[in-house]
Write a sequence for this structure.
């Protein structure tokens, strides 16, 4: 049962998109490097929405769920395996692409921190506080909505990428968003999604560069398989009754006064 209207999260998301669009135009005029552009854009938007939430929205995030090491490991098994593969791939390229390492760290770090705060933190919780009794279907729906918004947000890269490359990136981001949302909801911590997000972006930049190019048939098929793994893992985690139970243990957080969110 919904307690509040749904348009507020979408308005916040549209405001973020507008901010990204304006920053792109400003940095284009100032001839900023890509790494500097992403860093300052993400830093400004992070501070802006953090302060806006503290002053006006008052959206509380779900609390960290205390679980043993084995439980945390099981939840993060797919990100751990993929991170290991990506780190090994990137490791062999670091010596060849030293000039890209600092830029890759800057871009991946700022993107991981801001995007996890905004999409898995702020937006996801803005949807959750609109639900009286949170069920597994609700968790799946909220993850789907925020992941679609996360994926579509990458349309701002269209001015530097081809249409096919941007669409490919949007779908990849959607699938990744599903996985990251499920990990967050299962653990109550943004740290795990942020770490995997950083490793993924850092490795991708070193291996493929800053721009997402139009994929070859083989790259497309490989990516689709990987994205399906992301989505399947997220569905398994979200359909697990323990996830909804853990989230509902934090239901008092969502019952705090939140008139403007």
């Amino acid at each position: 049962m919904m307690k509040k209207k749904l348009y507020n999260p979408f308005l916040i998301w549209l405001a973020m998109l507008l901010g990204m669009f304006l920053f792109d135009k400003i940095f284009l005029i100032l001839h900023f490097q890509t790494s500097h552009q992403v860093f300052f854009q993400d830093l400004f938007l992070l501070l802006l929405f953090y302060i806006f939430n503290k002053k006006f929205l008052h959206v509380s995030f779900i609390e960290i769920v205390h679980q043993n090491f084995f439980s945390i490991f099981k939840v993060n098994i797919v990100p751990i395996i993929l991170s290991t593969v990506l780190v090994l791939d990137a490791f062999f390229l670091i010596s060849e692409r030293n000039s890209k390492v600092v830029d890759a760290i800057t871009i991946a770090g700022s993107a991981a921190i801001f995007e996890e705060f905004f999409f898995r933190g702020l937006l996801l919780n803005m949807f959750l506080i609109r639900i009286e009794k949170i069920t597994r279907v609700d968790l799946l729906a909220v993850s789907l909505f925020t992941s679609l918004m996360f994926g579509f947000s990458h349309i701002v890269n269209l001015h530097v990428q081809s249409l096919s490359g941007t669409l490919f990136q949007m779908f990849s981001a959607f699938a990744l968003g599903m996985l990251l949302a499920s990990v967050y909801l299962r653990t109550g911590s943004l740290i795990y999604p942020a770490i995997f997000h950083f490793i993924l972006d850092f490795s991708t930049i070193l291996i493929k560069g800053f721009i997402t190019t139009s994929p070859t048939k083989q790259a497309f098929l490989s990516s689709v398989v990987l994205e399906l793994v992301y989505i399947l893992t997220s569905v398994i985690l979200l359909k697990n009754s323990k996830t909804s139970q853990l989230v509902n243990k934090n239901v008092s957080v969502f019952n705090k006064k939140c008139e403007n969110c």
Q: What stands out?
A: DSSP finds eleven helices and no strands in the chain. Residues 7-254 form one domain.
